[in-house]
C-alpha cells in the first residue's frame, strides 16, 4: 500500500524546536517523526514509529538467532522484589514510585533483573533447563535529573533487555559471548559507527561489562582508546599505579608559610619563589590536592569524603559518580566548611605537624575522622607539597606511606589525552559517544537475593549465575539520526528508513501526476515501501521536505518526463542520476537491494 | 525456525492457580502463557506473547485498511491536559497518579483523548487536513477497585485506541461507520461469538456509542436482546415510559397505619389485609419504593440521592453507577440515617400529609431538601402506596403529578427477562458478555476543552468533532481463550494460535525421533509455524500438554510410523485421522489454510 503524503499525519517545521540541543533531536521534530509530550517523554508520529519498528525488528531477529526467547514483563511493578535486592532504595530519585488505591507501593520498571529472576525461579528447577536466555522489547522509566537531547536521554524509553541464566561461570562466559556477537551484528545492521569499550557496572552490580558506544561528538559518554587496542569508558579506566619510590633521602615534614595560596597555581608560584627546588621548578604535579565531597546515600544520609590526588589533575565528576554509586557526590559548599571547622578551605592536608612530630590528620582513624581516599598515583614513597590544615600554611616533604596513608584508593582523576593506557598499549585518545548497548556479567547477586537455585548434575542445589544485556531501542533511533543527518535533514540508512523510496511529482500537468502515481504503484507492487509526495505544493517545498525527511532514495517525476526520464536522488551522497522511466523499477530495486 | 519444547520457556502446571476465577485465566496460567506479577498485572511468557502479537497484527491490518495511521503516545503523561478536560479529577481513584523528582504531577494514561487532540491541534489547521484517523496499540493503566479474571480486568493492559477527527457531523458519522465495519472484520477474524449493543459513554462524554461484547457466561457485562433486533448493554437500556394516566377518580392522599412494614413484602401483605382493593390484590408493583444512596463526587464531596421506583423492582447498581458517573453511588448506612433524621428508614415517601393538606417532602425544593429522581414508569397520574415519612405509617392514593414530582427521571431499575424492548421489538432476553470493543461519537467535548479548531471552506474557525474507538487487545487474548477452551485446556483459532502445528514424537526409538524432526523441518520449510515436542517425556505427558497448550492441529509421530503413518489431531473437534507420512506436509498445509 502506497503512503500518500497528502494523507500522512506529519508536518515539516521550518523552525528548530526551542529545546533542541542536538541535531538528531532538531531534525526528528522538524521532519515530523516525534513530538514532545513532557520533559524526556515523546510521542511517536507515523514516520518515527516506522523507524522504531525497524530497529525493533533488527534487534528481535538477532536475539532470536542466538536462541533468546521473547517475553514481556509489566512496566508497573510491585515494590517487594526490588526491596529484596535493595534497588528500591538504591535507585534513589531515579525511580518513579507510586501508590495504588490500596496504598501498595509500586514502581515503573527501570530494568527487570528481579522480575526475570523470579519467573525463572517459578518455572525452572534443574541444570537441564539451562542455559536460558530471555528478552523483551519494552517501555522503561527512569526519572532522570536532566533529561536531554530528545530521545537520547529520555524518562520513558524503549529498551531491549535480555537476561541469561547459567549453572556455572563457563556457561555465563558463553552466554555473554553469544550476546556480544549478536550485539555486533545488530549494531552493524543499524548502520552507524560504534566502538566496544570496557565499562563499569554501575548500580547493576556484577563483574565483567562492556558498552557499545555510538561515536558522536554530542554524546554524553567519554571513552578512551589506545593504538594497541585498549578501549574503555572513562569511568572504567583503571589507572596503572607507578612503582613505589625510595623516600629515604627525604627530610621530615615541615610547615612553610604560604600566604594567600588557596589555589594550586598560587601554591606552585609561592613554592618556586620561597623554597625553590635545585634540580627543576616545582609544578602542580608535585602538589597533593585534597578535594572534599559530600556523599548522599540512597537513604538520604550524608558523609564527607576527601579525595587526595596530584594537583595537576581535577576530579572527573562522572568517574567519581560511577565510583561512589549508588551514593551521589556533590562538591562541598561554604556552609559545609563552616559546619566542619577541621577542614581549612584551601589548606587541607593529610598530616598535622605537632611538637611530637607529624600525626595523621585525614582518614577515618586520623584526627579529623573524615574518610580519605587516594589517587592510585599517590604510591608509597612519593613526596608532596600539601596543605597544613592551617590557613596560609603548607607542608613540604610529606611522604606517602611514611607520614600518611589513605583509607583506600579512589581512581577518579580526569583522564587526559596522551595518558598511558593501563595495559601499556600506548597513549590514550579521548572521544565522545552515546551508550547504545551494555552487556554485563551479573553473576549471582540477583539469584542469591531472590533465591534462584537449581539442582546440578549431582543433585546439589546451586545458585544460578546471570548476565544482563541492554540495548536502547528508542535511543538508537536518535543515535542513528545523529550519526547520519546533515545540514539539510535526516538521511536514514536503508534498514531503518520508514520508506524505501520517496516519489516526488513535481511540475504541473496531469501527466506528471499520473506517471508518478503509476511509478509508485509499480514500485509498491515490486515489494518496496513507497512514500508518494502527491501534495499540491511547489517543487521547492517537495525537494526541501524530501531532504528533511531523509528517505535514502527519492525519484523525481517532473520536467524530464517529456523525454521519458525520471531523476533518482541518493539522499546521503547527494548524487543524482537520470533514468528512463521504463527502467525505473528495475533500477530502484537494484539500488534498494544494493545489487 | 522450529521451536523445540525442550528449549521453550514454559511449564504446564498440573494445579489451578489459587486466584483463577474463570477458565481462561486458569488455562492461560496452567499452559504457561502468562504469569501474575501483581494483582491485575501479568507477564507474558513466549507462548502468550505470540498470541498477543497475533491479535495485534489482526487489529493493525484492519485499522490500516481503513486508512487509520499508527502512532504511539507515552504512558507516562503530564497532568495539565487531563486537568483541562477535568478528567484528572473525574477519574477518581481509577487513575494511577505519581510525582516526578521535581514534584510535577503525572498520571499513567488510561486513555489518550487529550494527547491525540493536542497533537492534531499542533500539526493541523485546515478542513483540508481532515478527515483523519490515528491509532495506537499501547499499554494502558487503570487502578481497578477489583482486578479480576486474569487478563479480563487488569490494571496494566494493552489496548488499541483510535481517534477520528472531522470537520462536521456527517464526517463523524462516516468515520464512526468505517470503524464499526473495521471492528466487525476484526472480531470476525479473532474467531469468537460477539454481539454489537448500544452502550453508554461513561466517563468519556459524547453521544452515540456501541459496544462489541464477546458472549460469555463469565462476562462482567449484562446485555439484552429482543427478537426484533434490539440489543443494548443493560446500562444503556432506556425504558419507554407508559402513557400518562387519568387520576381524576382517585381520592386524596391519606395516611394509613401500617405497623412493622419496613419491607415491600410486609407492606403488600398489610395493604391486602387492612385496606384491600375491590378489583384485585395489591402487589409490589403498586408501591413506590424510595431508595437512598450516597453519591461520592470525584472531588470527595458527597450528596444524598433518593430514587423512587415501583416496589417490584430493585435498583441495578451497575445501571446506577453508569447513570451517576463520574460520581460513585453507595447504599446509605445506619449512620447516614442517624445523621439525617428526616429520612425515616422503611417509611420514606415523597409527600407529607399536614393539616393543610399534602406537601412535597422529597426533592430539592421539598421540605427535606434531598434530591429525588423517579423511575420512568412513575408517570403523571399513576397512583401509589408509599411511605409517609413517619414510622409504621404509609400513604395510599399518592398520585404522581398531583401530589408530588421528582427532580428528574433516573432510569436505573433492574431490567428483567421478558421486559418489553424500548423500541417495541418484543420481549427482552438477558445474557452476559465481555466488553471487547467500544466505539463512541465523542463530538466536540475534547476539541472544545483543548481548543482544537480548523479553518473551514469559508475560512471560518470551527471546532473539530471527534470519535474514540477502543479494543481490548490483551483482554481479547483472554476472551478468545474463554470462548474456545474446554475441560482439557486451550483450543486456539488458527489466526491467533502461537503455532500452526504441534509435532509430537511419541514412543521409543531413534527412528521416531528423526522422523518427527524431519517432518517438523519440512513443515517449517513449507512456511508453517511449528512447535516440536522433542522432550524426553512419556506419550501421555505429551498428549496432555498438547491439549492444555491448545495448538489447533497436532501431528503424532509414533507407533504408526512402522506402517508409514502419522496421526493428525484437531484440537477443537477432537477428530483424529491417520495420514501417510509422505502426504503429511500437503495434508497439513491444506488443513492450516482451510483448503
Under CATH at level 1, the class of the largest domain in chain A stands as Alpha Beta
State the CATH architecture of the largest domain in chain A: 2-Layer Sandwich
Unreliable stretches of chain A (pLDDT < 50, length at least 5) are none
Estimate the mean pLDDT confidence of chain A: 93
CATH superfamily of the largest domain in chain A: Bira Bifunctional Protein, Domain 2
Proportion in helices of chain A: 25-40%
Largest sheet of chain A: 9 strands, mixed
Give the N-terminus to C-terminus distance of chain A in angstroms: 24 Å
Helical/strand content category of chain A: alpha+beta
Protein described:
The structure is a homodimer of 595-residue chains. Chain A is of the alpha+beta class. The first copy, chain A, has 3 domains: 3-7 and 20-237 and 430-483, Bira Bifunctional Protein, Domain 2 (BirA Bifunctional Protein, domain 2); 254-409, YbaK protein, CATH 3.90.960; 501-592, 3-Layer(aba) Sandwich (Rossmann fold). Chain A is 25% helix and 29% strand. In chain A, the strands form 8 sheets. In chain A, strands 4, 8, 9, 10, 11, 12, 13, 24 and 27 form a 9-stranded mixed sheet that branches. In chain A, strands 1-29-28-30-31-32 form a 6-stranded mixed sheet, sandwiched between helices. A 5-stranded mixed sheet of chain A has the order 17-15-16-20-23, with helices on one face. The two termini of chain A are 24 Å apart. In chain A, 49% of the residues are buried. At the A-B interface, strand 2, strand 3, helix 2, strand 4 and strand 5 of A face strand 2, strand 3, helix 2, strand 4 and strand 5 of B.
